[in-house]
Amino acid sequence: MNRTSVALVDGLGAFTVDDLCHPAGLTEVVTVKLASLTPGRFVHDRLTHGIRQMLSMIRDAVCGDYREMPLTTLADFLKALDYFLRWADRIPDTWEGGYVDDLQEVLLTLALHRETVAHYEAWRTRREAAQCLRVVHSMVPVN
Fold first, then answer.
1. 75-95: pLDDT as tens digits
2. pLDDT tens-digit series, residues 5-55
3. Which long-range contacts (CB under 8 A, 24 or more apart) does 18-26 make?
């Protein structure tokens, strides 16, 4: 059984802490699971956005780029991500409407940590602006 198949049954139990900082495998599994969603369906679009947001925050925190995430936020995000990855949860994902409970879990988790999410988004905006400035400055000819 490949890692993706294992993760869709065992959730994050298929990964190690090292996989959080070198997230290619985890990102691949999340991408496979997100690909099972139907674009244009509200529940699926909202779930995709929430999962990507949490995954970005987890990666930046664990890899040391964003150092201000409380451990409780990290733990709750990992729990919500684990819930999303598992096919068999309160409402199995293979059933009609099977992602409603996943969306509920993700939205409740994001709402619980709304201040941390807002702080992270502000940090990310500042970081991206600083990177753009560095690019612009590197393009200015030096005489």
1. 999 999 999 999 888 998 889
2. 777 778 888 888 888 777 778 888 898 899 989 999 999 999 999 999 999
3. 20/58, 20/59, 20/62, 20/63, 21/59, 21/62, 21/63, 23/55, 23/59, 26/55
**Dist. CA 109–CA 68, nearest whole Å:** 18
Instruction: Please check whether residue 91 is in contact with residue 101, taking contact to mean a CB–CB distance below 8 angstroms.
Output: yes
What's the domain count of the chain?
Answer: 1
Q: Residue 18 sits in which domain range?
A: 3-139
Q: Is the dihedral of CA 69, 59, 129, 48 positive or negative?
A: negative
Considering only CA atoms, which of 30, 50, 45 is closest in space to residue 106?
50
Residue found by looking up tokens 């409380």 in the block: 70
**How far is Cα 50 from Cα 108, in angstroms, rounded to an integer?**
10
Enter the tokens of residue 131. Answer: 């990177």
